[in-house]
Amino acid sequence: MTFSRDTISSKHIDALATTPQAASSFLSPATQQSVELPDTSARVSYRQISSYIEARIERGDWQAHERLPSVRQLSRDSGMHRLTVFKAYQHLKTQGTIYARSKSGYYVAPPAVHTLTNENELEPALFEGTMNELHRLPARYQFSQALIDPNLLPNHYFTEYTKKVFDLYPKLLGTYAHVQGDLELRELLARYFSQHSRFYLEPEELLITSGAQQAIFLIAEAWIRPGDYVLVESPTYATALDVFRQKGARFLEVSTDADGYNMEQIEQLMRQYRPRLFYVNPTFHNPTGLCIPAEQRKQLVDLAAQHQCLLIEDDTCSDMYFGAAPPPPLFAYDTEGYTVYIRSFSKYISPGLRIACIAARQPWMQMLISCKSLTDGGTPLLNQKVFLHYFMSDRLHRHLDTLRIALRIRMETMQTELQQSNWHYIEPQGGLNLWVELPPELSVSRLLSHALTEGISFVPGSLFDYGKRPSQHIRLSFSFANETLIQQGMRELIRIADEL
Amino acid sequence: MTFSRDTISSKHIDALATTPQAASSFLSPATQQSVELPDTSARVSYRQISSYIEARIERGDWQAHERLPSVRQLSRDSGMHRLTVFKAYQHLKTQGTIYARSKSGYYVAPPAVHTLTNENELEPALFEGTMNELHRLPARYQFSQALIDPNLLPNHYFTEYTKKVFDLYPKLLGTYAHVQGDLELRELLARYFSQHSRFYLEPEELLITSGAQQAIFLIAEAWIRPGDYVLVESPTYATALDVFRQKGARFLEVSTDADGYNMEQIEQLMRQYRPRLFYVNPTFHNPTGLCIPAEQRKQLVDLAAQHQCLLIEDDTCSDMYFGAAPPPPLFAYDTEGYTVYIRSFSKYISPGLRIACIAARQPWMQMLISCKSLTDGGTPLLNQKVFLHYFMSDRLHRHLDTLRIALRIRMETMQTELQQSNWHYIEPQGGLNLWVELPPELSVSRLLSHALTEGISFVPGSLFDYGKRPSQHIRLSFSFANETLIQQGMRELIRIADEL
């Protein structure tokens, strides 16, 4: 029995069910032997249907991107309950064998990128996924995730603090948190900002969030309506773009270079389009590592107030500097209350806790609290108390000093290797990444696909662009891999580029 | 110097600033003595302006709901920086002395409900706030929050488990969680549901959320677009109504009584309006305590599939039964995949952890994961691992048995007291509340305001109605106060009602 390579029609399935040959092949396509229909236990039978479908795909009856029979058809033809067939498809979808299209049905999935590596004569398939999909690919030389190596985090000490916290608050796990966040933590952070970031606020002007990601989401939820203009830096943080896009934002881009912003361009865009907000990352910018000078910070907050455009200041790396500490955040220069400040501590203290905060004046704060209240009712108290006790310890400051040195060494290791290439970058003053420009003749997407097959990951610059336009830039994170891996991985990456 | 009682005009302020008398009174209205303008330290001066405004309000110059001078005016007139004036207003707003209206300015706040209690000849002001505002009022007899008394939770044992978890996963705090939730936890929950709730799913069909509140939010975010029809039970959980309302839902209500749903009404509404979803709470319904019989559960999942209406099944109390265990959830009857199941464990295990989950078939699950990814990137790993190790312990099952008995005793204590009244209720088979109908001549809002002044809180039935229509019902939670407090508080409440 043969099957055509194009879309499976209901005729095929009918034939499959009504001829004895087809009926027997239904559950054992490889051997063509008759097998009994499975018993009524759904847990067994859906696996049998799955195996049948897998075998058909393996044999080439159903090819990549070909549509599979509908649940209803396969149920009728096999005599199985529809739920059983449905579960089989779910199972295959989960393991990546097939995929679903909304309202259209199930299709055979193409083989994944990394399974192509055996056939070393072939050009690997180009990577076309999102940032998250890229991060999920296995990589021995991990230069794509701007995360701090867990080995550089104070895990042991942190664990000790956590245990103490339970002795301090024996009913911690039985208590709901205030929606705005634990008052003790907000008071501590207000004091911290006045001492370290040169701005003053009341605990009521702080909202504790579950990571910077939630902070960005709450801001988009509060203020972006479909069709609103949003100013973004070019390039900028890919995930923020995803959040704003989902809320229906129209993007306007602001170019940045080593001198900072083009202020005239910003003024003109604000005047012409009256954007709802400007998402900025002025301190050790992701991905470029740039730091906006103090003078431009003052100008920007004035412009924003004048044009009533909220500045959303994302600050996740200001403690990760290699030379002098950066200027104070925009929020510290703002006398008009148009800056909303996101400060994350997750990356370099405790990714497992997910603690960040938003500082904002009224009426903005009240709007954010309403959104937080609907979104999750408040960040868990456990996480806030654990964070609080570590954050106020001397140990944290020693950790930060050590971490800065460790990151600097890793950055320099990467830079040393880059000297063997003709690739360019601007020396960052802080942060976790190098933003590297490749020579025009080198294809970034080919380099990435070849690198992935060798277990090296990096992020192509196009993912930091709101329109995903091609770019000769790549982001190389030096914070996750240790020096040995950075050395080996970078040598290998440059070798691959030379061969291309 | 006198001020008119109506809106303060700019003329007042100009006068205030230009006459020597006004200028001197600016910062010391009570004594009329001249004081020097504060120095440049913003932290000092905003407090001085605050005190000035407070003194004016106390003196009666500015009355409740009167508009205050704008920030710009007060800044010009006082010679203070606008930010300083702004901060003074923020400070007063935070402490409840004044309130703000969007784009209109600041107004004098009326005295709070509980400050009226001194004047015992006066009728207390009617409570007109939201559920959250009600919960924030101090109450000695706490019958408004459907929370479990922290003294009934296994705090000590839980703390011990938490400490062990850190020994098991020493790098727990340095690790990000998977956006869908920890795989070990999802595998455990999948096994748990197959054993306890009679439904089978893959770990890929589960999403871990930060409490049931976030689960409801993600569902609304994924599926409700402005103008969509949403079916809700009448009455239903107030906070879910708030979330759906914020997404622009139009509500259609389904009446419930001791026999369950009116199935014909549901069918007619589904046929006529094609609602996007039906939010249901079939097991020990909040607030009524009703439990939908198995037969109606089957009918409902069939209807939903037929009309392609998602059933959002909120299940937070199914372990809190007093007699027989309830029937399996709707999800267990659903062979078509139209039920999305929310299961929360926060209430009776660990409010401080905020762990819940959503079970859903594809393609729904994939849509929820996308929303979760944008919303917060994943529930913190710490909370998931702590929960997991407690959840799989024998200790949990002993805790549940004890808790059921403790809750039953509290419920019976409340019922005994209710025998002294002519109030009606349907005996609940589980849950945390009594849904009590007051006699038609008794005003629920007057009862509430008088009760609040005596430190007794309950939730008026109108808050469980999508249109906040008046209702003769009230919700009395018996899970937070202990037996002595229930006895005293209920006697007092019935006495107040009798006097009215």
UniProtKB/TrEMBL annotation, chains A, B:
Coiled coil: none annotated. Gene3D superfamilies: Aspartate Aminotransferase, domain 1, Type I PLP-dependent aspartate aminotransferase-like (Major domain), Winged helix-like DNA-binding domain superfamily/Winged helix DNA-binding domain. GO terms for molecular function: DNA binding. Residues 43-111 form the HTH gntR-type domain. It comes from the Bacteria. Keywords: Aminotransferase, DNA-binding, Pyridoxal phosphate, Transcription, Transcription regulation, Transferase. The keyword Chaperone does not apply. In the C-terminal section; belongs to the class-I pyridoxal-phosphate-dependent aminotransferase family. This is DNA-binding transcriptional MocR family regulator.
